[in-house]
TrEMBL record:
It comes from the Bacteria. Transmembrane segments: none annotated. Residues 20-57 form the PAS domain. PROSITE patterns: EAL (PS50883), GGDEF (PS50887), PAS (PS50112). Gene3D superfamilies: 3.30.70.270, EAL domain, PAS domain. This is PAS domain S-box-containing protein/diguanylate cyclase (GGDEF)-like protein. PANTHER family: BIOFILM ARCHITECTURE MAINTENANCE PROTEIN MBAA, DIGUANYLATE CYCLASE DGCP. Pfam families: EAL, GGDEF, PAS_7, PAS_9. Residues 307-437 form the GGDEF domain. InterPro entries: Biofilm_reg_signaling, EAL_dom, EAL_sf, GGDEF_dom, Nucleotide_cyclase, PAS, PAS-like_dom_sf, Rev_trsase/Diguanyl_cyclase. Residues 446-698 form the EAL domain. SMART domains: EAL (SM00052), GGDEF (SM00267), PAS (SM00091).
């Protein structure tokens, strides 16, 4: 019999009679292999509300609600695989021409036609039926729709152990042969799956547990022996609150897992690198100590705790000289040694940081006795150290600040420790000093000092006092040393209280020029009387840094009519370590013009006697600290005597300063000092007091001649 001929020749070669189909109470359709409607009967027309002509040659999907669109191929496939599930009636939601959804019960079977295989579809309106099966069927069909659209591998097994839903992804995931599905044996499926897993036992136990408890939901991660990872979700399948089966859903998360693993590894690596970077960023490269950043971080954290917090700030004294005299390598070695000692003093509970240069800081948290630690630091650091063969004693000044109710930030603590450290320097170094609030007031005073000093320079309040220097040969005053004074509100401020401020602010340039001008003008007549006489003026390194210094000095000498050969400039040895080479050049220019250079405070710095011959100096002034070691005049003071002999043998003149007793004067004269200076002869006096100072000196000398030394 011939059906209506369509694009593809379809001839139903079964025993169906066309009339029989036409008259059947159930709707009947024939679909070609691509899902096109090839035949419909009158019941189908009625059920869906279309005319036959409207349906023929059209995709069958127009008769199904959207969820059912994918079902055709699946059913077709199942029928092709001869799966028993394929020929069972199933529920679906149809779509009436007017848009209304219709509950359907569908039965399919394959038929052979000339063009190949077609599918015969019997459709029954399930809407009026109330049998308990229909809801279940509907649920199953909806599930079917889900199965088609998800990428998870899903299998649904009814309580009776029948597979009621399954999708291709499931088959693919487990490489499952269709025969296994067709066998309808869930235990075989479970075994098949378990065989592919790294831990089959676990899976089998899980399945058994889920079988035993139909309400149970589970989530597991299964590792395949081939390296894949699959997530398993299992939950009961419910229809109208009744559990009708169980849904097993498998999701291949291998790539996600790999990506996660990779991400985690990357994160770990990053964290490691960040840690290293952080370490580097927080570390002082020379000493390996914490740096300022880490110190601040730790201090801030400590201040959040209720524990006692102390900050010990220390600065090496004269470290610059170590660097300059012995070289940077030695300086570095010294810093490393210092940091090693510091860490030993502090132990693991404190943080030792290097703030830069020769400045170190210690943070103590929870320490009840900061004084003991501070004392230990001072004595440990001050022990002699051998750096490149030279034995040295690192000097230091230590300031201690402790957390108080008032201090909230680490920078505040540091500032306080800094002030205390300055106080320690002033207190004579190699000691520690606690911060006290008065120190802040002192700091304020210092700032006011600069402002006041600037005004003093402008108002001409900087004056000069003169102290006589006596020649050992001639036993008379041959020189005056000019010493700056600040006349302030009727008081005389000594230079120790303002020279440092003047150097820091640069005001020393003006002050130095003023002292030189006044000294030259006031002493010019006295100097003119005898070419042996001279005037000595102190010069700071800051002044020498100015390139026109030598020129200015010579200008002033010329302007005041003083012979440069009667002018002595006193410098301390630190000026020779100045990085600016022109400093030495300036001194050489001045010496060429006849001016003499004296090395002041000799013996207090780092320079060895051996270095003396390389320095552009004419005179050394032995520091008063050596002179004060002389009490009786019979002591053996090899350092003092060798200094004098060494300088003399180099052709330098030697002046001893700070002479207060006749015994000291005698001793120094007997050991070859060329000139003597000190309160014994006269204190520094204003210019008008010079004649009196000369008379006092003469009296002291006369008395000296009567002094005979014991032995
Ligand atoms: P200095 O150059 O070593 O000056 C000697 C200091 O020792 C002077 O203190 C002087 O008064 C003091 N002195 C003198 N004889 C004795 C004594 O027998 N016993 C004691 N105990 N002290 C004695 P002064 O005038 O207070 O000066 C202190 C320092 O200030 C000077 O040390 C010098 O380094 C600096 N200074 C003074 N005037 C100037 C200046 O015009 N320019 C620069 N750059 N520095 C200056
Ligand atoms: Ca001096
Ligand atoms: Ca001196």
């Amino acid at each position: 019999m011939n059906f209506h001929r369509l694009g593809a020749d379809i001839v139903v070669g079964t025993g169906f009679g066309e009339d029989l189909l036409e008259q059947a109470p159930d709707a009947f359709l024939l679909l070609t292999a691509d899902g096109t409607i090839a035949f419909v009967n009158s019941a189908a027309e009625r059920l869906f509300g279309y005319d036959r002509e409207e349906l023929l040659g059209v995709q069958h999907t127009i008769l199904l609600s959207e969820e059912g669109h994918g079902g055709f191929l699946r059913v077709f496939g199942r029928l092709g695989r001869k799966s028993p599930a394929g020929s069972r009636p199933f529920a679906a939601v149809g779509l009436h021409r007017d848009g209304a959804e219709v509950a359907l019960e569908i039965t399919c079977s394959l038929v052979s036609v000339d063009a190949g295989t077609a599918m015969a579809v019997a459709v029954r309106d399930a809407g009026h039926r109330n049998d308990s099966d229909s809801g279940r069927r509907l649920a199953v069909s909806l599930l079917d729709a889900t199965l088609e659209t998800t990428s998870d591998g899903i299998v649904v097994v009814s309580n009776e152990g029948q597979i009621t839903g399954i999708n291709d992804q499931y088959l693919k995931l487990w490489s499952m042969p269709p025969e296994l599905i067709a066998a309808e044996d869930p235990t075989a499926l479970v075994r098949f799956i378990a065989n592919q897993l790294a831990d089959p036992e676990y899976f089998l136990q899980k399945v058994a547990a889920l079988h035993a408890d139909s309400f149970m939901q589970s989530h597991d991660v299964l590792e395949f022996t081939d390296g894949r990872t699959v997530e398993l979700y299992s939950r009961p399948q419910k229809v109208a609150d009744q559990i009708v089966g169980r849904i097993w859903s498998f999701r291949d998360i291998t790539s996600r897992r790999r990506a996660q693993d990779q991400a985690r590894r990357a994160m770990d690596e990053l964290a490691e690198q960040a840690g290293k970077l952080k370490e580097l960023a927080f570390q002082d490269p020379l000493t390996g100590l914490a740096n300022r950043m880490l110190f601040n971080e730790r201090a801030a954290a400590a201040l959040l705790t209720p524990d006692p917090v102390h900050v010990l700030l220390l600065d090496l004294d004269d470290f610059k000289e170590v660097n300059d005299v012995l070289g940077h390598h030695a300086g570095d070695e010294m810093l490393v040694e210092i940091s090693r000692r510091l860490q030993k003093c502090v132990g693991p509970h404190g943080t030792v940081a290097r703030l830069g240069g020769d400045e170190f800081v210690v943070l103590l948290v929870g320490c009840r006795d900061a004084d003991t630690v501070a004392q230990r630091v001072v004595s440990t650091l001050n022990a002699p150290v051998s750096i490149e063969g030279t034995l040295m004693r690192p000097g230091l000044s230590l300031g201690v600040a402790s957390r108080d109710v008032g201090t909230e930030t680490s920078s505040e603590l540091l500032r306080q420790a800094d002030l205390a450290m300055y106080a320690a320097k002033e207190a004579g170094k190699n000691c520690y000093v606690h911060f006290r609030p008065e120190m802040l007031a002192a700091l304020l005073e210092r700032t006011q000092l600069t402002a006041g000093l600037r005004r003093a320079v402008e108002l001409g309040q900087i004056t000069v006092h003169f102290q006589p220097v006596i020649s050992s040969d001639r036993l008379e005053v041959v020189q005056f040393e000019a010493l700056a004074r600040w006349e302030w509100e009727g008081e005389l401020v000594p230079p120790d209280e303002f020279i440092e401020t003047a150097e820091r602010s640069g005001l020393i340039r003006e002050i130095g020029a003023e002292v030189l001008r006044r000294s030259c003008t006031e002493l010019a007549p006295w100097l003119a009387e005898d070419p042996v006489r001279s005037v000595a003026v102190n010069v700071s390194g800051v002044q020498l840094q100015h390139r026109d210094f030598a020129e200015r000095v010579l200008d002033i000498a010329a302007w005041s009519g003083v012979d440069p050969r009667q002018l002595v400039l006193e410098v301390t040895e630190s000026v020779f370590f100045d990085a600016h080479s022109h400093v030495i050049g300036q001194l050489e220019t001045l010496r060429e013009a006849g001016i003499r250079v004296a090395l002041d405070d000799f013996g207090t710095g780092y320079s060895s006697l051996g270095r003396l011959q390389d320095l552009p100096v004419d005179v050394v002034k032995i520091d008063k600290s050596f002179v004060s070691m002389l009490h009786t005049g019979v002591e053996k003071l090899p350092i003092l005597t060798s200094m004098i002999h060494m300088a003399s043998s180099l052709g330098l003149k030697v002046t001893a300063e700070g002479i207060e007793t006749p015994a000291q004067a005698r001793y120094l004269m007997d050991h070859g000092c060329d000139a003597l200076q000190g309160f014994l002869f006269s204190r520094p006096v204003p210019s008008a007091g010079r004649p009196q100072a000369i008379r006092n000196s003469a009296a002291a000398i006369a008395e000296l001649e009567g002094v005979s030394l014991p032995g």
